[in-house]
Amino acid sequence: MALRAGASALGFVSEMPSGPGVISEEHIATIVGRLPAGTDAFLLTSRTEPDEIEAQVFRCRPSTVQLVDRLGPGVRADLRRRLPGVRVVQVVHVSGSSSVDEAIESAEHSDAILLDSGRPKQAVRELGGTGRAHDWEVSRRIVETVEIPVYLAGGLDAANVAEAIGTVRPFGVDVCSGVRTNGDLDGAKLGQFVSCAVAVKDGW
């Protein structure tokens, strides 16, 4: 459904403390193994220990690992050594101007960063899929500051994605809850979202 709608990459949500779309590692590996050549498969992981992340990547075989939680010093550099050929994308949960400094640090040893609206410090940590937007002006500053691609996520849907792209000018956009109905992926919403995103990009 996502590929037919025009998605250029697919995100596979592994075990998380909260949020929608979680599927088993076995299911992820099965789908990834059947994807058309050239389709970028993102494994979303909440793991923070290099050994656990490495093992999960080998089980699921994605082309990209998306780290949705903050990692300790040197972990991304370690992962780059352990996982040659696998792109590393670090998520930054934008909460204010301090997120610019976090993004600069997160860009080190990352192939890209993704800006989201989670709340990692809550009792039940939110690491994505919240349906909330954040301050896009802060996101714009991050795009203008770091020297690697930046994806934008957080509360995006067909109604606001054009404004979000125009404001932030990200490398790409990521959507989860904004294209779901009652928790399930909605083909009509997904098609509208991709059409709106492509239309504003084509207008640049």
In short:
With 204 residues, the protein is of the alpha/beta class. It is 37% helix and 18% strand.
Oligomeric state of the chains in view: single chain
Q: Whole-number radius of gyration?
A: 16 Å
From N to C, what is the helix and strand string? Answer: HEHEHEHEHEHEHEEEH
% residues in beta strands:
15-25%
Number of helices: 8
What would you call the shape? globular
Strand elements, count: 9
- Order of strands, main sheet, comes to 1-2-3-4-5-6-7
Q: State the major sheet.
A: 7 strands, parallel
The low-confidence runs, each spanning 5 or more residues with pLDDT under 50, are none
What percent of the residues sit in helical stretches (DSSP H or I)? 25-40%
- Alpha-beta classification: alpha/beta
Beginning-to-end CA distance, first to last residue:
27 Å
Mean pLDDT: 89
Provide an overview of this structure.
The chain has 204 residues and is α/β, with parallel strands linked by helices. Helices cover 37% and strands 18% of the residues. The protein contains eight helices and nine strands. The protein has helices spanning 2-5, 25-33, 50-60, 75-82, 98-106, 136-145, 161-168, 187-202; strands at 9-13, 40-45, 64-67, 87-93, 112-116, 150-152, 172-173, 180-181, 184-185. The strands form two sheets. A seven-stranded parallel sheet has the order 1-2-3-4-5-6-7, covered by helices on one side. Strands 8-9 form a two-stranded antiparallel ribbon. Strand 8 and strand 9 (184-185) form a beta hairpin. The longest helix is centred in the last third of the chain and has 16 residues, at 187-202. The two termini are 27 Å apart. The model has no long low-confidence stretch (mean pLDDT 89).
